[in-house]
Write a structure and sequence with these properties.
By secondary structure, this protein is α+β, with helices and mostly antiparallel strands. Strand 2 (28-30) and strand 3 (33-35) form a beta hairpin. The strands form 2 sheets. A 5-stranded mixed sheet has the order 4-1-7-5-6. Strands 2-3 form a two-stranded antiparallel sheet. Helix content is 28%, strand content 32%. It has one domain: 2-C-methyl-D-erythritol 2,4-cyclodiphosphate synthase (60s Ribosomal Protein L30, Chain: A). The protein contains 5 helices and 7 strands; from the N terminus they run E-E-E-E-H-H-H-E-H-E-H-E.
């Protein structure tokens, strides 16, 4: 290593993905906010597909497993659990290992409802949960173009890439 060069921060990248079925009855909980819709996501916890993807992304970047390992669906304490609480607990574990979030880039795949008006409030809520600046959270929404289970509104999916920086 050349001692004349400045030290670069230790960076780690992780990807998270989640899928949940849609069921009748709203509202839809996505990214930590309620979106008016006649359907909601089905799952053991509150089934927030986006917060689950974010949780897996930050855990993956720190090589600390996944959401199912920390919060198994076999544990009755996780029934109807708020995904924001799970994300916060995962972030505390990652922070204790010496990492902080540089940025998140998220995609929600949903035929309906239209998420464009909700992207900023979702990014703001994720930033609030993680105690980072809203500018560190990107949120995009894509339809299924009428194709496959996303396009037929059977499911919603989310993906997130997290970039972590080692701070100690």
């Amino acid at each position: 290593m050349n001692d004349d060069l400045p030290a670069l921060p230790f960076l780690r990248v992780g990807i998270g993905h989640d899928t949940h079925r849609l069921k009748n009855g709203g509202p839809l909980r996505i990214g930590g906010i309620d979106v008016p819709f006649e359907k909601s996501l089905d799952g053991h916890s509150d089934a927030d597909v986006l917060l689950h993807a974010v949780t897996d992304a930050i855990l993956g970047a720190a090589a600390m497993g996944d959401i199912g390992e920390l919060f198994p669906d076999t544990d009755p304490d996780n029934k109807n659990r708020d995904s924001a609480d799970m994300l916060l607990a995962a972030m505390q574990k990652v922070a204790a290992a010496g990492f902080q979030i540089a940025n998140l880039d998220c995609i929600v795949f949903a035929q309906a409802p239209k998420l464009s008006p909700h992207k900023r409030p979702i990014a703001d809520r994720i930033a609030q949960i993680l105690q980072i600046a809203p500018e560190q959270v990107g949120v995009k929404a894509k339809t299924g173009e009428g194709v496959g289970p996303v396009g037929s509104s059977e499911i919603m999916q989310a993906q997130c890439i997290a970039l972590l920086m080692q701070v100690r």
